[in-house]
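Sample intake sheet
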Amino acid sequence: MQYLQFFSCISMLLLSFDMCRALDCAGNNANKKVASSSYVSKSGRGNFKTIQSAIDSIPPWNSQWIHIRISPGIYQEKVIIPMEKTCIFLEGFGSEFTSIEWDDHYNTAR
């Protein structure tokens, strides 16, 4: 019985280590930190008009850093980053100039 408990504890420990492994977005190439950059601008001067459209353009399970720069403004949109959209770096122009707002919380209809 003690061996079974010991084996169960060791198995759970090994499984938890496997699930908590971090993704190395830089890969083996230390010189290349960011694979590509996109620019979001509400005015249309960037690659995308919405933050969500920029996120949606990234392929699933991407392994290189993608830098999404967000121009100043108030973006009234619900931004969802799915688990399979990895290695995304969002950057605005500071909290005084760039804001993402959505009136959604646990008690509202989804």
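Comment: The chain has two helices and five strands. The mean pLDDT is 82.
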